[in-house]
Amino acid sequence: MAAILIDGRAVAAKWKGDLALQAAELSADGTEPHLAVVLVGDNAASQVYVRNKENACRKAGIRSTVIRLAEDCDQEQLENTVRSLNDDAGVHGILVQLPLPRHLDEAAVLRLIDPNKDVDGFHAMNSGRLMNGQKGFIPCTPLGVMKLLEAYDIPVSGKHAVVIGRSNIVGKPMAMLLLAADATVTVCHSKTENLKELVRQADIVVAAVGRAAFVTADMIKPGAVVIDVGINRVDGAIVGDVDPAAAEAAGYLTPVPGGVGQMTIAMLLHNTLEAVREYGR
Ligand code: NAD
């Protein structure tokens, strides 16, 4: 039987509609939510991502400002930009678009962002809060995955979830969120032995590897929930990390495009409004 496709577009549209109402309320109360995005250089994919974020903000009634710095800008210039956004009471969320050009120290920049404006949730303070079960900003993609599971009433508690990938942006926070939702979590990565056998035990599989068709149908336990976070460009098309043939084995599957990616921006808007509510007034 073919898997039920999880419609990330529809779930994200519902979120964005609700968030637009919340943004309007905040503005009516005297605080227009404001996201500042720092974009360094001219990486083509980053330009597209930033444009999508600007469009989503505009539609939701959230002010966005993009600060563009030249490809060859130095660390001090970038850090001074972040400092001035930290100090600007009219800015509620700060996002530094990654990846940065190689000569820049990404970790140092992320450390500098005010944790209370860190709407990407990449600051160690927010990773620590997530780890400790405290309230904080949660990285948008894994948060979006949890909201998709909720939207489809997919039970997580007590289930075995296998996360493939251990990045700070997706894999690790994804594992923490699943653990917080009472799943039994296995994290696989590039050095994992017996990956296939581990994935085959999973009730929930989250693939965040960055390799097209990495997860194949024979790795999926019949009926498992398969969440495809991957975004890979193959012959000009965007594909995920999961071979579409896995739909024959899975119970649920997120398509690419139209799955998780749609939720990431919705969660960025959500985090920006949270920043206003928690710290911005
Ligand atoms: P990353 O390169 O930082 O991490 C990839 C992870 O995959 C690593 O932890 C690595 O250990 C693991 N890995 C690599 N080869 C492996 C192998 N052979 N077996 C098992 N594990 C292996 O990437 P990332 O930032 O975590 O992103 C992962 C994917 O998700 C990418 O395709 C990225 O484009 C996509 N992504 C999508 C969204 C979205 O909004 N949908 C957001 C962020 C990232």
Helical percentage: 40-55%
Biggest beta-sheet profile: 6 strands, parallel
- The beta-strand count equals 11
Quaternary state, please? single chain
CATH fold field value of the largest domain: Rossmann fold
Sheet-strand content, in percent, reads: 15-25%
Unreliable spans are none
Q: How would you characterize this protein structure?
A:
This protein is α/β, with parallel strands linked by helices and 281 residues long. The protein has two domains: 30-114, Rossmann fold (3-Layer(aba) Sandwich); 139-261, Rossmann fold (3-Layer(aba) Sandwich), CATH 3.40.50.720. 41% of the residues lie in helices and 16% in strands. The protein has helices at 8-28, 44-60, 75-87, 106-112, 124-132, 140-151, 171-180, 195-200, 260-279; strands at 4-5, 34-40, 63-69, 93-96, 160-164, 184-188, 204-207, 225-228, 232-234, 237-239, 252-253. The strands form three sheets. A six-stranded parallel β-sheet has the order 1-11-8-7-5-6. A three-stranded parallel β-sheet has the order 3-2-4, sandwiched between helices. The protein has a two-stranded antiparallel sheet with strand order 9-10. β9 (232-234) and β10 form a beta hairpin. α1 (8-28) packs parallel to α9, α2 (44-60) packs across α9 and α6 (140-151) packs across α7 (171-180). The longest helix is centred in the first third of the chain and has 21 residues, at 8-28. The N and C termini lie far apart (52 Å). The relative contact order is 0.17. The model has no long low-confidence stretch (mean pLDDT 97). It binds nicotinamide-adenine-dinucleotide (NAD). The site of nicotinamide-adenine-dinucleotide (NAD) has 23 residues, from α9. The site of nicotinamide-adenine-dinucleotide has 23 residues, from α9.
